[in-house]
Amino acid sequence: MTRVPRGYIARRRRTKMHSFASNFRGAHLRLNRMITQQVKRAFVSSHRDRGRQKRDFHRLWITRINAATRVYKVFDSYSKLIHNLYKKKLILNGKMLAQVAVSNPNNL
């Protein structure tokens, strides 16, 4: 039986997966089945951890603002500070408030 030259679609798919796995090591870089498994796993982890990163940074900002409000006796807690800012219609970004709390806490 003669050899049948196959199309380019499967090779193109494997090359694409290989480009995603270019920084992996060992079999995770060389074997096609292992590459697809590890790339899928990496995509799942990155998708999950994007949400987790947002959550962690939000917690960090709240902690920084809360610490600054308690140390400099602005309010008793973070929630009272945010409540009073909301009553005065000063809607501020939590990231910016945390930056002010760390760099220049006297202006909080």
TrEMBL record:
SUPFAM superfamilies: Ribosomal protein L20 (SSF74731). One of its GO terms (molecular function) is rRNA binding. InterPro entries: Ribosomal_bL20 (IPR005813), Ribosomal_protein_bL20_C (IPR035566). The keyword Plastid applies. It holds the Pfam family Ribosomal_L20. It is found in: Plastid, Chloroplast. It comes from the Eukaryota. Keywords: Chloroplast, Plastid, Ribonucleoprotein, Ribosomal protein, RNA-binding, rRNA-binding. GO terms for cellular component: chloroplast; ribonucleoprotein complex; ribosome. Binds directly to 23S ribosomal RNA and is necessary for the in vitro assembly process of the 50S ribosomal subunit. It is not involved in the protein synthesizing functions of that subunit. NCBIfam families: rplT_bact (TIGR01032). PANTHER family: 39S RIBOSOMAL PROTEIN L20. Belongs to the bacterial ribosomal protein bL20 family. This is 50S ribosomal protein L20.
